[in-house]
Design a protein that fits this description.
Blueprint lengths: L2 E5 L2 E4 L4 E8 L5 E9 L6 E7 L4 E3 L7 E6 L4 E6 L8 E9 L5 E3 L3 E6 L1
Parallel strand pairs: 2-11
Antiparallel strand pairs: 1-3, 3-8, 4-5, 4-9, 5-6, 7-8, 9-10, 9-11
Length: about 120
């Protein structure tokens, strides 16, 4: 069974940085997309950053230039480096992996990120 375990969330002041990690266990032979999603208070869950099997990345306009998504295949881990954090970045961050052969989505449990002034 595929499992995603997230870590690295916490409380940080505006302007600070945080690095989220998502460790993937189980059998995944390939993937279409790995991504980070955010669910802010009172809002729908939305894509923050994604990376394709080919290594290309994309970002929500609100985080472009501040966040960086990356992966380490040897460690089966995807990361989200968050810099210049703003209060509006606050929310629960979820890691998602789309398995390649059947496009099934797997989600992490979420990790809370709180940005304060």
């Amino acid at each position: 069974q595929v499992q995603l375990v997230e870590s690295g969330g916490g409380l940080v002041q505006a302007g600070g940085s945080l690095r989220l990690s998502c460790a993937v266990s189980g059998i995944i032979f390939s993937f279409n997309t790995m991504g980070w999603y955010r669910q802010a208070p009172g809002k729908q869950r939305a894509l923050v950053a994604g990376i394709t099997s080919g290594g290309s990345t994309n970002y929500a306009d609100s985080v472009k230039g501040r966040f960086t998504i990356s992966r380490d295949n040897a460690k089966n881990t995807v990361y989200l480096q968050m810099n210049s954090l703003k209060p509006e970045d606050t929310g629960v961050y979820y890691c998602k992996v789309s398995r390649g052969y059947d496009s099934r989505d797997f989600w992490g449990q979420g990790t809370q990120v709180t940005v304060s002034s």
